[in-house]
Amino acid sequence: AQSVTQLGSHVSVSEGALVLLRCNYSSSVPPYLFWYVQYPNQGLQLLLKYTTGATLVKGINGFEAEFKKSETSFHLTKPSAHMSDAAEYFCAVTRMNRDDKIIFGKGTRLHILP
Amino acid sequence: DAGVIQSPRHEVTEMGQEVTLRCKPISGHDYLFWYRQTMMRGLELLIYFNNNVPIDDSGMPEDRFSAKMPNASFSTLKIQPSEPRDSAVYFCASSFLQAPDLELFFGSGTQLSVL
Q: In which region does residue B90 sit, left (phi positive, over 0), alpha (psi from -120 to 50) or beta (all else)?
């Protein structure tokens, strides 16, 4: 079975500081991995995804994530936080088969301090 | 395309009443998902359809919950009778779900409050 663990339900960083949101996954076969972002009163939208190929994936708004198989991790980073990055971030996993559902983590709320 | 459209945006009802949530997926998408989001449990997958056929409903919490997809452009999630613990935000999402795409497109959600 697949699962996703996000460490820290709330993370606070100062504006301009590094953002690091942690995600570890469990999957018996090579996974597809995702980060989604949810702004207040909105649905989730895709930030970036890893399917195959390069393990460092770049997404929208300056975010990137690195797939590390040895650590079963897919942490999300951004070099310099902006106030507009305040949102909830969800890591998700699925397997490389059709009809496999996408499993979401419980989310990490990112707070940006002025 | 206008994206995934959910209605209503907000629903306030009394315990015991029937609630129907509606979803119009993006045209051409062959997968449709219903999720529920609460503070306690996060984002839970309730049920998903492929080509209008329910594939996995193991996340539906009780028999009070039912979902249908009569055609490719419409789905409903019904709760009958509703209870206060059903209060949550319910999201509908659609996708092609084929590699390397796999992106889920979410609606804006329905905020359900059961009093």
A: beta
The DSSP element (H or E) to which A51 belongs, if any, is: none
Query: In angstroms, rounded to a whole number, what is the distance separating the alpha carbons of residues B115 and B111?
Result: 13
Which residues in chain B touch residue A94, judged by CB atoms under 8 angstroms apart? 102
Provide CB contacts within 8 A for A54, sequence distance 6+: none
Asked whether B74 and B18 are in contact (CB, 8 A), the reply is no
- If you count them, how many residues does chain B have? 115
Q: Which of A34, A43, A105 sits opposite B107 (nearest CB)?
A: A43
Instruction: Answer whether A97 touches B (CB < 8 Å).
Output: no
Per residue in A29-83, pLDDT tens? 778 899 999 998 889 999 999 988 889 999 999 999 999 999 999 999 999 999 9
Q: Which residue of B has its CA nearest to A39?
A: B108
Residue B55: closest C-alpha in chain A:
A99
Q: Give me the mean pLDDT over the B42-57 stretch.
A: 92
